[in-house]
Amino acid sequence: MKLAIQMITAAMLMSATGARKDDALVTHLPGLDFQKPLSFKHYAGHLELKEKEKLFYWYTESQSDPENDPIVLWLNGGPGCSSLGGLFTENGPFVVQDDLSVKVNRYSWNRKVNMVWLESPAGVGFSGDVKGPNYYNDDVIAAKTREFLSLFFSKFSELKNRDFYITGESYAGMYIPYLVDLMVEKPIEDVNLQGFAIGNPFTDNIIDGNAYIDYYYSHAMVSLEAYEEIKVRCGAHIGCLFDETPCPAECEVLLEQAEVEANADALDPYFIYGDKCLLDNTQAKALRKRAKPSVLVSPTHRGDIGACADSLTHAYLNQRSVQEAIHVTKPGGKYVTWKGCSDPVGDLYQSSPSSLPKYQNILNHDLKVLIYSGDADSVVNFVGTERWIGGQGLKLHIKEKWHAWFGPDKQLAGYEQMYNGLTFKTVKGAGHMVPAVRPLHGLNLFECFVYGQNACNKFLYPIDDNEIEAGLTVVDQNVDNTVNGNVISENKSQASLILIVACGLIVMLVAVAIQNIRQRGIYQRRCANGYQAVLSVTIAALGAMLFASPIISYDAHRVGDLPGLKQEDVPFNHYAGQLHLPTVTKEKMFYWYAQSRRSPESDPIVLWLNGGPGCASTEGFFTENGPFVAKRDGSVGLNPYGWNARANIIWVDSPSGVGFSQPQQAPVGYYNDDVVADRLRRFLLEFLAKYPELKSREFYVTGESYAGMYVPFLVERLVDDPVEGLNLKGFAIGNPLTDMEIDGNAYMYYYYTHGLISRGDYLTLLEYCDNDVAQCMFMDVNCTTRCEEAVLKAHEAADTDEFNHYYIYGDVCHMRNNQRSALHLHLLDNVGPKIQMYRGVVGPCASDFTEALLNKLDVQQAVHIEGELPMKWVDCQSYISRNYIRTVSSLDKYRKLLGNGLKVLIYSGDADSVVNFIGTQRWITEDDGLALKPASPWRAWLGPDNQIAGYHQQFELGLTFKTVKGAGHMVPAVRPLHGLHLFDCFLYGDDNCTVMSYPAGLFEREAAGNVFDTKAPGPPQEDVYHDAVFAKQTRATILQASAPNGIVSSATVSLFVCCAVLLLAATVYASRHRHQNGQNRQQYQPI
Predict the structure, then answer these.
(1) Which N-terminal residues, if any, form the signal peptide (predicted)?
(2) What residues are annotated to the active site?
(3) pLDDT tens, 815-841?
(4) Strands across the sheet with 727-734, in order?
(5) CATH of the domain spanning 355-462, picked from 2.30.30.40, 3.40.50.300, 3.40.50.11320, 3.30.70.141
């Protein structure tokens, strides 16, 4: 009887619990496809505290095993920001689309846990009204959150005794330590607290605050001059922007000027490489009490979550139907205005100066503790976090040294270091809101925290397009050397056919005449005169064709069909082949010349050089700024961001022995910057002789990397010994290796300030290398054993075998990888090969696809490679890199060239660690370099998508320095739109380039709410550059626009000469035969 009563009581309790749950069950979510039922239940509503606060929560069951999986609480920061922002824009199961429909987030954190998002404190989001000023401090909020949890576990009692974790980000760096400290001192019955994890946690006003200007400078957001002045004038008060303590007046002025330099209004400081949503935005900069932004920005998102997710979430949650569905209000009840962050709460909140004292107690309770940092967040950056964990704060002992960790996509996801009681991880390329921009790596980090590394290594994860592009699921492609058919230009075939037919007709006429002589022995005079007339007319016609046909004239190097791309589908003419130089070394220099897509008859001519030394410009042609891209299937596609949009461009493989340029030269005496400059000048002479219509056009030299040596040497040669018809106007170089010592010494500083090595490793480097890291970086001169050991250990810590140091936020290709790191080849044997990473229309395996394409026989025939085919093409020639005598510095060339009326642009992708912007900035401004004085302040520049594209500053003597935000060593590869715009502005000036039209990519459309104007912002006026021709070009208009005058190709001349010799021989033979039979000829009467 007693047992029966207990069972009935238990059943009644279970029934009551079920009833209590069901009143919060969300049965229908507006905008969500009801035909695809969810794999989990979810609940939303209010829980009322003792003092009548109604805190709103959204609880989703696990998608895997809700009856047994752990329970996790998520808290956003602010203070005063809603966790529903996190649910919809970071790690929740739902994402709002631009039509306010809802789709499921593949990377939701409730995959394997039950998860609750809480809007805290009261007054935030749907959590009731704002309270009085004494309510808002960390002690009170911790107590209120603990009270909420007690009620929550009572309502959902089946979750009791599960493993329980607390997670959050940003100002949760205060919320969570205060809450955990309270819960270990006053546990909630049957709540099994196991640990906590905090992302980009604001923890200590002084330490975090003092790190922010270091991050700004080391990430190209403020100038070197501003940074140095702030360090001197502000001292330990840099963090006053984060504090209530007044800033010293002089310091505050400098800090505000730094904000102006960084253009913080238009920048997303929470994810510095992301786009800013161009829609209306409600996100507040809640952490920066003293900042005075004129535009409120939200974090940028990637993955399933777009740049405008915050604005779309705001619109969605302010629909009455949504508020009724999630039990915010009853049908017909009071409508609530939802905001992502409550300004009144933020203003009233009395923030704690530090949560470090709480860690002293927490770390003694055997909890799992994870602190993680997206390394692209400037607001609460990893530099400050590492400092408060280590020497400036907790001073925790290191258990396991700094090393890389990898995501399920086998990409380097970040770095980690294990301390006593705490793990610190960075997430490479993520911002303040890690799950928003690195959803796969964020989910993997979270699940490894909850379940442990061994378990999460066995989990399956969604695969996105980026992973597929990186070759994660693709079998290695071998180079195809089979013959797919000879590819011959359509016009070349027609022209050759015309000549052959003409020669054939002439030969037939001569043959008939000779046959008559032999058979009859005599000619009649009239007939002989008739044959001679026919021959004369034929020769004249052939000559007219030879010297009048523009199509025939370019036939020798005109490129026709390429794999997967018909000639008629290419909206411009392009030519490729080898030009023979008249030198004792007999170079055959390969070039690929693409005419302008706009006005080929008048646009400038530009030379492009890749670096190395020893790397082919044909690599840049297909993987950076050329008009074509090599595809995975071996075909060729068009690149909408090709730099020949408004310029005629030449890519040349230099020096001889690189790419398709032949032959390979002797290892001694040839491979140095003086010889290379001389051969390039000779190449230009031959090129202008072949294409004389380009003479007197404006001419520019451009390149990247080791072209920091190539270009200044060549330009000096062209200034000293001008080429007739070459109208040199300037030069531009990207991420230029310029001075071995200055560039080299910036290398490891960049590694440290970008989270690639630990602070301890960096301090060791400075000690072991005597502050001269350069001695072991780009060259091994004076490289001591201790310094080399420290450099190699730093490379090992950064795991440079597995991450792309040319673009530190990019993926590596999991297909064949034989890219050489030619700039510091002496380290290659010790630290392994490197690979480059691309975005835009060019993927991370572009180098592999390019190599496969250029090693095809039909492609080599199409681009007119001479000699035995197929020849072996490689992107970088290690023989040349190893034998190249490198110049230590090209600064002397600049001192000679600057101030001579040349336009000079130096630009740096700020995500390149190899030749990074820090070293470049130093050699431009410091006394050991050019010591140039600024001619304009450091300011942001905007791309045609109205996003901050980077920063720029003009200097005396005509030099301009620009950074490209989020770009790597190969700027056009990863920021193609901004790279093209930078190039156009260099050629045509800022006033003209701002009214040019550009392609709109998916990112640009997403950031504009799918309303994108392809015209760059600027005053309404007629486009003087006729950009509309891009959309309207036809093959006929291109042929008409690009028709050259009076140019004869070598192949055409050869055919004509052969025909002429044949005619001459036949005529001589006939003449002799007539002379021998002269007496017989006079016996015949006219026919």
Answers:
(1) 1-19
(2) 170, 377, 432
(3) 543 333 444 444 434 443 333 333 456
(4) 574-580, 588-594, 648-652, 605-609, 698-704, 727-734, 903-909, 959-964, 948-954, 939-942
(5) 3.40.50.11320
